[in-house]
Amino acid sequence: MLTPPYLKKGDRVGIVCTARKVDLDDLEKGIVYLKNMGLVPVLGKTIGASADQYGGTDSERAADLQAMLDNEDIKALWCAKGGYGTVRIVDDINFYKFVKYPKWIVGYSDVTVLHSQVHMLGFETIHAVMPVGISRNTKEAKETLRRAWSGNSLNYSINSTRYNRLGQGTGELVGGNISILYSLCGSTSSIVTDGKILFIEDLDEYLYHVDRMMVNLKRNNMLCNLKGLIVGGLTKMHDNSVPFGKSAREIVLDAVKDYNFPVCFNFPAGHLKDNRALILGRNVSLEVTEKGSRLAFDHVE
């Protein structure tokens, strides 16, 4: 994977809505975060736009995203908010200038669509906090985003959990939101996971939905050749009046029971206050022991 240029003081960071709508007031803390790092926020035309639940019509959101991707002065594209809607516009985007002048694409949840699409083009991206709601994120989460897009080293040590499966693995880190990965199966945006370490997280799903999605990833051969699995937040899961019978963690373990690779649960990333940054597409080393887990990113100058 190729690494976009790291950010330095004075660089311009574009903020756009690719999914749910956002008002300027929602971005106040995110703008302060950028300015405190010496970066210059540039707001897209979709900020304040509205079409039903979206930040403008599909064509408006696609045009705004395209303009930011094509603008050589914009050094990173920070998606304002997740929700739903990016998949509706991704096929209308021309990545020709992005490939010539790459930049960091940052966000999580619905932004998994862009992570996956850009990875198919061969570039790293950053799974991390977004401007909306950043005031609720931990100091550590915000600091790891700064480290990720500034080119500082990134390593994590995670407490052990009884669900973990011990072992070691190295490979390229890919993944994101389970619902999005599931929805992209069979499309040109579907990621290749062979020989890689997969990260997954999700929010507000019924347990049987989680099972259906994990079974679908398995049937698409996205689990069988992994070097490791990292499970982030499985947040606010629901059950029916007739219990499904397994927790979300147990569902994940059931989906990978036929394979032999390490599994790390409770990683602080996803729909959590402590949403630590992950450089997707970067080579990493994962070690899961009885004492805990360690994730180390290769350092790229």
UniProtKB/TrEMBL annotation:
Catalytic residues (UniProt): 109 (nucleophile), 201 (charge relay system), 271 (charge relay system)
InterPro entries to which the protein is assigned, alphabetical: Carboxypeptidase_A_C_sf, Class_I_gatase-like, LdcA_N, Peptidase_S66_N, Peptidase_S66C, S66_fam
Domain LD-carboxypeptidase N-terminal: 13-128
Domain called LD-carboxypeptidase C-terminal: residue spans: 170-286
GO terms, biological process: proteolysis
Alphabetized GO MF terms: carboxypeptidase activity; serine-type peptidase activity
UniProt-listed Pfam families: Peptidase_S66 (PF02016), Peptidase_S66C (PF17676)
Keyword tags: Carboxypeptidase, Hydrolase, Protease, Serine protease
Stated family: Belongs to the peptidase S66 family.
Name used for this protein in its record: Muramoyltetrapeptide carboxypeptidase
